[in-house]
Amino acid sequence: MTAKLAVIASAGPAGLTAGLELARRSGIKPLVFETDAQVGGISRTIAYKGNRIDIGGHRFFSKSDRVMAWWRDLLPLQGAPGGKACALQLNYQNGQRWLAMPADGPDPERVDDVMLVRPRTSRILFRGQLFDYPLSLSLGTLRKLGLITTARVGTSYLRARALPIRPERTLEEFFINRFGHELYATFFRDYTEKVWGVPCNQISAEWGAQRIKGLSLSAALAHALRSLLPKRLDLARKQTETSLIEQFLYPKYGPGQMWEKAARMLTAAGGELHLQTRIVGLRHEGGRIRAVTAVHADGRRQEIDCDYFFSTMPIRELLRSLDPGPPATVGDVSDGLVYRDFGTVGVLLKRLKLGGNSTGRTLAAAMPDNWIYVQEPGVKVGRLQFFNNWSPYLVADPDTVWLGMEFFCSEGDGLWSMPDDRLADFAVSELAVIGIADADAVLDRVVVRVPKTYPAYFGSYDCFETIRRYADGFSNLYLLGRNGMHRYNNQDHSMLTAMVAVDNILAGDPSKEKIWAVNAEAEYHEQK
Question: Of the four, 31, 127, 132, 483, which is 20 to 30 A from 433 by CA?
Fold first, then answer.
């Protein structure tokens, strides 16, 4: 009897999770087709002269026990310091969990397949000063804002609480209702508009509800008050010496290491992985995807009959591949969907000016940040990543500082179209403008561009339900992940959509509701 076939596009977190789940749990053979030469999607790790770039930054923490167990199954947790087993407390975005840190876990100095425990620190650069992120109302924050601005923030917030905007339609209204106009204008508006390239009053409030659920000034006030109270030393803390600084798990060589391991396991379990192969056609009949046409790197076309099709490709590409094509109403909504693209300039430095001329070896003590959000006016850079602080193994020379400068752009605009050398020069000039590093400290630069990084909540997004109803009408088509669902999922959310889809197939459940519920119900959110 011939095994059933599942064709999967592409080899990012959702696609590889679906493939490995099928290979492990069923007799269905997964065939994964990836357009790139490398697996991982936007969670891949880019190698450059021994240094590694994590595109966008990927902290490995989830409220889903299933996802956490899945990660640790592929990459075991490093051994406890001093060889003595302990309970590890992870604190991240108001989420807490305890993990057993084994005495005999792998030593990162000797073993590559290992998950590190890393401290989490992020801050905001604004007016030449560093503020906590997520924004806190500590005495330090209020001192930096100044008495007049603090008074305006308080008055504006009270006004917003007394007279909230109803109905709440736009992201601007979402922020104002929770923070007041003054704090919104100070810390949220400019950065958010830099990310999306459009005013906040043109973005759906759904983006705020999905990405920053639970965020409000009242929550920040409550956190500030709790921080002033004496800390209770409970039994669990007595039994460990774990710091309460926020922490997360992280693969030794960056997020791509996880997906490279998943790809090896997929093929070892009998699945297939085809790199540099693009899906260009989807023949359907009777409410089912019947066959897939793929074009390989050498130009060879291949048609594969399939029993299931998992799509993590952008919605527009999916619908344009259908034969026969979708109704005009569906195609019009698909063509109107908007994406925001992304460029990273990796900059290798002798020293970092911010934090007192730190070198690679002194960086963590002087500047512990994983990344910094740049709120300074007059510059294009949106975030700075300090790869040394993600994992020391991302940096070839530990005496150097390996920095990522992130730019939000759109395909075809000035930043995206700028030649690599010019963009690298531009990035270095902005480092000097915001006081991060001087040009004479630069040792090397490299540019990486990533299209369709962020599915946008404007354009024709308000009519997305039209696409969902049409796609869900195909009984064997499963939309997964960030681009597949046109939803700003985190890595763990994308994985969960794949896991739930496989669950449904094995249970004989034709409904897609549980898949769409991932990152929509409260249990999946990480409050910030």
Answer: 132
Residues 108 and 151 occupy one common structural domain: no
Question: Domain check: are 330 and 348 in the same one?
Answer: no
Cβ–Cβ under 8 Å, residues 112 and 253: yes
Mean pLDDT value of segment 332-355:
96
Which residues contact residue 213 at a Cβ distance below 8 angstroms, ignoring those fewer than 6 apart? 522, 525, 527
Alpha-carbon Rg for the chain, nearest whole angstrom, is: 24
Residue 286 pLDDT: 97
Q: Across the strands, what pairs with 46? A: 53
Q: Are residues 280 and 304 in the same domain?
A: yes
- The pair of three-digit structure tokens given for residue 44, joined into one six-digit string: 């891949």
- End of a domain among 421, 456, 491? 456
The answer to the question of residue 127 being in a domain is no
Neighbouring residues of 282: CB distance < 8 A, sequence distance ≥ 6: 289, 291, 292, 293, 309, 318, 321, 322, 323
User: In which order are the strands placed within the sheet that holds 308-311?
Assistant: 272-274, 29-33, 5-9, 308-311, 477-479
Element (H, E) at 178: helix 171-183
Nearest to 445 by CA among 353, 344, 342, 345: 345
- Full-model pTM: 0.91
Q: Which two tokens stand for residue 154?
A: 């308080």
Could you report the per-residue pLDDT of 12-71, keeping only the tens digit for each?
Answer: 999 999 999 999 999 999 999 999 999 999 999 999 999 999 998 999 998 899 999 999
Strand 383-386, strand 5-9: pairing: unpaired
Domain count, the chain: 4
Measured CA to CA, the distance from residue 438 to residue 176 in angstroms comes to 38
Residue ranges making up the domain that contains 297: 5-43+257-336+460-524
* Distance, CA of 91 to CA of 100 (rounded, Å): 14
Please tell me the distance from the alpha carbon of residue 19 to that of residue 41, in angstroms, as a whole number: 15
Report percent pLDDT > 70 for the chain. Answer: 91
